[in-house]
Records
---
Amino acid sequence: MRRAHWALLVFPLFTLPLHAQDLFAERIRPLLEKRCASCHNPEAKMSGLDVTSRGGLLRGGKQGADLVPGKSAESRVYQFVAARKMPPTEALPTAETEALRQWIDAGAEWSGPASIHKQRARAGADWWALQPPQPQTVPAIDGFTNPIDAFLAHKLREKGLAFAPRAGERTLLRRLAFSMKGLPPSAAELSQPFPAALEAALASPQYGERWGRHWLDVARFGETDGGEHNNERFTAWKYRDWVIDALNRDMPYDEFVRQQVAGDVLYPGDPKATAATGFLVTGPWDSVTKQINKDKLMAMSIRQDELDDMVTATMASFMGLTVNCARCHDHKFDPIPTRDYYRLAAVFHGVTYGERAVATEDQKTQRKQLVEPIERELKTVRSDLAAIEDAPRARLLREKYLLFDRSRGEAARRLPVNPIWNRERLAPSTTKRLRMIITAHQGKLARIDRLEVMPASHVISNWTANAAASAESPAILEIELPAPWTVYEFIWSTDAARGSRDGMPKVYRIEASTDGQTWKEIGSSMDHDSDVEVLLPEVTPEELRASIPAGERARWQTLLAQRDKLDAQLRAIPALPSVHAAYPEPMRPAFVLHRGSISKPGEPAAPGALSAISAIDANLAGPDADDATRRTALARWLTDRRNPLLARVIVNRVWFWHFGNGIVNTPSDFGFNGDRPSHPELLDWLAAEFMSHGWSLKWLHRQILTSQAWQQSSQHNEKAFALDASNRWLWHMPLKRMDAEMLRDSILASAGNLNPERGGPSYLLQKKAAGGSYMHKALDNDSPEVWRRAVYRFVVRGGERIFLDSFDCPDPAVATPQRSVSNTPVQALTLLNNKFVLNQAKLLATQLEKSAADPVAAAYDRLFQRQPSTREREIATRFVTQHGLALYLRALWNTNEFVYVP
Amino acid sequence: MSRSPHTPLRTPLTRRQWLWEVGGGALGIGLAQLANAKPHFAPKAKRAIFIFLPGGISHIDTFDYKPALASNHGKETKGANTITPFFGKRGTVMRSPWEFSRHGKSGAWVSTMLPHLAGCVDDLTFIHSMVSRSNSHGPAMFQMSTGFVFQGFPSVGAWISYGLGSENENLPAFVVLPDPRGLPPGGVAHWGNGFLPAAHQGVIFGKQEEPIADIHPQAGVSEAAQAATYDLVTQLNEEHLRANPGEDALVARIRAYELAARMQLSAPEVTDVSGESEKTRASYGLNDPELRNYGYNCLLARRLLEKGVRVIQMYNGGHFGKPRINWDAHEDLVTNHGKLARVMDQPTAALIRDLKQRGMLDDTLIVWTTEFGRLPISEGLGEGGRDHNPEGYTSFLCGAGLKRGFHYGATDELGYKAEVNPTTVYDLHATALHLLGLDHTRLTYYHNGLQRRLTDVHGHVLTELLA
């Protein structure tokens, strides 16, 4: 090892006299393996070339032989490398290029195994998911009219398996209601024949609420920034409403995608289309590092993180690819070079996070016309009020501060600095010269109207600094006493008489000097409490009223009434509409960053898409293109019918949500590290048909829900289980535990307390605590107002725990293409003991006791849509007699029958 | 160990697992099915507690003694040595307001701020050269909690729970003891399960009356009614199971209710400290109104570790509002650190001594850390605070498998940058996992295209620290 280093130091590597065989083994073989073989191997054969054997190189690619032994200048492989055309992402180091030349010129000797091709450890451009869906012939199997069934039955038969028998009508109708609407079926719904019920479910607004929630998981939808300050995004709900509405209207999926990437620029002036771009910026965002940080490099890297979130979300949600893995190095498993990643990031260079006004010019002018006259009038009224109020208020405050200060005692810190009355306790010093050094203040110039030095009264009056003060150039008030005194206290104010003039010093220190040369600090603003730690006393309206001269009181009252009226008028004018959505960001040049480092920019990155999808031009726009051009081009590229992934990925997601198993079980990763399709032909057939049926999701649901596969029962089958425990071949419909939202909604619905209000601002279950904490505390506000569907709750990142969290409801810091389904004692405790559940149980009990002749039968009807058996009745009667109906209902909501969708 | 990318992600229990786990009856299947549950090699530590001090405790005023601060007091940092603060104004070099002296046989320098911990130094393993990837609380804290500067990745505790499972099914494997003064920013994300199954999320143990949220029935539900409810649910579930045979998930859920009933009994037992001796209570500061809350958490931590809780995340320092009640001493170091240290020092030292006296230090790992240190300069001219310093700070470990009274790494003359053996959070995590018998490169979980790790693609076990 050490010797090799020494050799390196002495001879440049390419002059090392390596034996030809050693040269191949030590230099060339690793070079071919590492730099070339991932694309040019017998499987991928990009440009027809295979470099993993000497024969392959001699045969060459589409343009002819690539290797001419002994003649590097004529060998295409060397020409491309020397011209830095290959490898496409990063040119070879000179030493490697040189070694390649030597090897060819020395006869291109090959040693060791004839082929260095290894079992595929990564995907190339020939990866299945990157090929266009192939036209499929539906297997002809008797008895299956729905092609879905034909494809599935074909595979089942191969394994000697079959579908479970069709589920009963009641089960099907329940399954339909829970799957499509996320709610238990009503009595009317249960009396419909299945086909009619299916159409009704698809047409109902609850369909969008249920399936919108699925999409919001993929989109990582959240309504706070996350991170340290975790600020709210009070208009982010408009994206959620857009999603629900789009699904209910069965917006073609390609359009659904286009609007989320570029709605604002495709349909300028349409606030809804702008809201759709909420998708790009609904992820977590580090506002602190972005806005407060002084470290420029750190701020730039945060910007890169913003872009990363947009690229990651776009490519994972729509394309099912983990492009983000290519941020620091070429993707290790999929054919996605780093260059592609930065070209995709360049698409979003004009976008950042923010609250975007979606008001038209007319709306703005209108509002201005309404607001301006009121504001003018209000200004006059306020100044008239101040003329009457300020002096009496300041007088009252001064008395209160004095008393308060005295009550706190000498050991306490000083009161918060205020304009009216401040007392400094100084380290006693005998001195003639003092100074107050002010480094921060309110208003334009620091001002002190009166400063009194104790013990003997030496007064400075009406001092104003001659320039704005800062730490670098403080304002200095110099005091020269008539004789050396032992000073221990100052009393000072900025505007003792009215408390309304600005200029109050906020940060200062007081120094003393005996010789005028050296100064010693004897007090400072740090001796005071801050106004968030200690609240200063205030004047009550009654006190103020009593202290206003009787002659002015009537006018004062009139002015107050005027002010309140004007304030109310202003508040009544609606704010201009805005939405948390793609927010314009000044465009900066984009680069490929070496190893993902912001301090190592490489070649410029023009907006582009994935180079591995060769069917569509990946060059999206020129380097100078504006934001609209960039995103419109990406939206077009994504929704181009030749895109092999867009349709496959969404049909697979829908499939996954229906069956609890995907055709591909990694819905956001169709790459090498993801799952392989269980039924590739079915996937391609569904994708192709989906596109030819106008990208209609409702068509897709209909196709799935009318299949025997979807309608089969959940019956267990020992033989099938032994062969396929994970139900990959769909030999039955698995029972599915309700997800968090469905559980909460279904408890409310079966209790008859679900508030049906749709859309609009989210209701809060957590709220940022007052007092400066950034914590979103769980609210104690269980009431009809929050008994709306869970999809309408305000989604807080990292808030205090709520009911939903126990049931795998994700904190949307990252996308959740599939939710985990865990089963824990804590979950049981929540469903059993949480206040929300008991409260609903009590409400329902009261209602049933009042109105139902047979409360147990009524409860079974509401929760399970069936009648209790004789035995169940007996069990119920015994329990209800002893412990009451409410606790009985609570227990029913805890049963497996309730929490599992059949 | 790791999940193969080709297995479906929501594999239900296989028949074999079902027979083993339910038939054997030894383990709760709900938890066991989702865990890795075995160390990779013989562990030194069976359990761990992470003590986190939000806000960033100053290393140069506690354990990292820098005489040069005093000799350079009031001087500006210039040229290449200029120190850029995070958001405050640049000040001048500021000496520590606390005196330092040597302690223990190891002669460790500790300031007068921490008299109790000073008595423990011979048992501690210091890293004086920690570096953080961010100078901002949020990302830096996320990195310490999850390995990543972004929110949403599994926490250290969740990884350990996933890696080792639980030793006591009647209590959660991963317990969180928040500071009663408030949660760190990001809240539950610091002990979240991220993309790991929810069974691995940290469970908050709160006040004595209600150790776990929803552990007790609401007022008005009698013990008899609660017991009858458990019976009723089980009875109905068993009926339902007869109609739906072969469904493992249904069995698992029946079992979860049994465990819940047991947890309802065992959690209050562990939080009831009334049986502890007066001497113990006093040592943890339970008689001091200021120390009581954190002291109780420290004592509870010991009791939980004794009962087989695998990993605890404990906080000292409240939320990030105003006034400052965590270690973020921007304005006034003396008051801020003075007040907080009084609360942190004695109970933390009591916990270390108590574990030692019970022999538990031999198989327990303690990690004491913060998100970053503080700058050697004042925040603004003549001001008394210090701004954030991600370039160098101190953490300590203590317990199983470690060299005791040992010091690793060093910062520069002023305590600004880690100069000797700069140590990343990844290294700290890799070392903690190593002591617990887990190889940080092999403890993985597939998520969105990657076999994810706590340490991403980084991290080295700090072998020099190992005994």
Note: The first helix of chain B runs from residue 15 to 24.
---
Amino acid sequence: MYTFSNRLKIFSIVLIIIGSLGWFYSYSVSHITLEEVKTMLASESHHGHSHSIIDKENEVHHNEYVDEHNTKNHDSAYSKDDHGHEKDHAEHVLHQIHNRPYAALYVAAFFFMMISLGVLAFYAIQYASQAGWSPVLFRVMESITYYLLPGSLIVLLIAVIGDKHIFIWMDPDVVAHDEIIQGKSAWLNKNSFIVRGLIYIAGWSLYRYFTRKFSIAQDKARDNKNFKRNFQISAGFLVFFIYTESMMSWDWIMSVDPHWFSTLFGWYVFASMAVSGITVIALITIYLKSKNLLNFVNDSHLHDLAKFMFGFSVFWAYLWFSQFMLIWYANIPEEVTYFVTRIEMYPIPFFTMFSLNFIFPFLVLMNSDYKRVPIFIVMAGIVILIGHYMDVYMMIMPATVVDRYGFGIAEISSILIFLGLFLLFVFYSLSKHELLAKGNPMIKESENFHY
Amino acid sequence: MGSKNTYYALYNDDDVLLSAVKKIRESKIDIEEVYTPFPVHGLDKVMGLKPTRIAIAAFLYGCIGITVATLMMYYIMIVDWPQNIGGKPSFSYLENMPAFVPIMFEMTVFHAAHLMVITFYLRSRMWPLKKAENPDPRTTDDHFLIELSSDKTEVSLKKFLKQTGAVEINKPNK
């Protein structure tokens, strides 16, 4: 039985407090006026090298916002270009600076929610496939999914409060001048966004609630009724999940670029959440094992988790590249703008993210023996988590703050807030029940699992 | 001490075989070879064989594959016959690299897989038209055969092997 130590509790609460303070600080300093932005831009263009940067910026800007310009100022965008561009640019920059704390908060909130959701899907797969190796890890997985309900509600809340700071289609002014968004308004409107979000969250959380309930009840049961019920609801949940996960990824991520779309985006986000989720299972398992609380988990279980980390990293890279290559090859302006903005404005995070998520885990976890050595799993795991945070960052930031990005107080504080919340919920849930799902009919097989 | 004799002990279940191999090795009898109709999981460990190095070979073959693909595409698409495909003229390898990634991937897998199989055959001394080495054709069907050599008397050895679950014990005529 795990007891939630006061030290960890205080540590998580301190993280939340420091994070909140930092975030509110970054929020307050982000409220600058148009005049300040203009002086800032002027001083930027006085630096020696800045001319080329500004030129490039404007050019890229055009790529990104060309449709928006076109439609936003419909008749006048290009006629007043010479004269009005400077003001337009300053306004854009002002918006981008305002957007940053919201976007930073949203990225971190989504990242931690995504871990929980990935673990929930992975857990359901274990039940639906009646896997024999994994039941010793069920309590760890169940505890990680405890964060899903609060986490996803917070994501939705930030999306609704952040409003046009994150989702440009929530700005009626933009929609009024944008025919493409108007065409999508049957799906992209705030009310149905909220309703859909609540449906996703309700479905996931109901499954989470019942599967946990049956799993606990199975510990004391004499028959396998609870196990069978869990099997059934898990299979049902997976069907619900794969639809809602895909739609969630359109709603919560893809719609930040409302002109752009990709048909495999749902899978791509799923690969990200699966690999981060499995990584967190492995990290928490190793942590609890180091406290001698999970002695029934042997290195074959770790080996299997590491195999999944390896496999899903490759799967993620496969989807990432599939999405990239088709868009790169076809070179259709409305599609390719997504990668043009990212490669031109975010060259370092863009390629770093790819190496952290693919090349590093691929090389470190390729060797079979390394997959059972905790230090290698922890090392690869931390890199994978950083990489997938960057992945979410790369999905949200270029659409919200464009080239006014960075990794500063706003981002770090947001991570601290949600890391604290995540630890608080997960370890609280771990302390509620025994760490071995001892009533599971597969538990014997799982305990004796060896490879 | 008499000279060593070779015996064939036949089993008809892989779990029985695994425990038999363990017992035979515990009683210090040399196992020359085990013939099975399919790969038996964990047999190499109980036989005390050295861990395989095929994984290292596979990695190297993969590296060869990706190199071959890179050079091949460089020669075909850039040097020998540059074409303008989809508005992307092939004048630079780096700029056209995304188009070659599927080929690099396929060639890596192709080389790793084929060279690994060939290595395995060579290492197991198997090649086309070679006469089969397995002493009993039933090892390609439903029987498992342990080839062992011992200087024990035939009677005591047979008794011991029966206890390990052997269904048949033969002493081949040489």
Note: The two ends of chain A are 27 Å apart (CA to CA).
